[in-house]
């Protein structure tokens, strides 16, 4: 399934699709967070918080204004 479809289904509340949407970004987010924080546990917490914020504000995302990866 393409990213646009995953975003639309996620906005409708499909938890399986939000997991599929966010999964590819998890490893990169973890690596970036660790490089900034130099602490594995803090990096995990930061990524978890970022994913929660992404999930809770997904309705504000507009494909016409940004790519999901950069948003």
From TrEMBL:
Residues 34-71 form the RNA polymerase sigma-70 region domain. This is RNA polymerase sigma-70 region 2 domain-containing protein. InterPro entries: RNA_pol_sigma70_r2, RNA_pol_sigma_r2. It holds the Pfam family Sigma70_r2. Transmembrane segments: none annotated. It comes from the Bacteria.
């Amino acid at each position: 399934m393409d990213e646009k479809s995953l975003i639309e289904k996620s906005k409708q509340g499909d938890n399986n699709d939000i997991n599929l949407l966010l999964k590819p970004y998890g490893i990169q987010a973890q690596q970036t967070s660790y490089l900034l924080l130099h602490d594995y546990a803090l990096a995990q917490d930061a990524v978890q918080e970022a994913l929660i914020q992404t999930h809770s504000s997904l309705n504000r995302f507009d494909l016409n204004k940004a790519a999901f990866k950069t948003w």
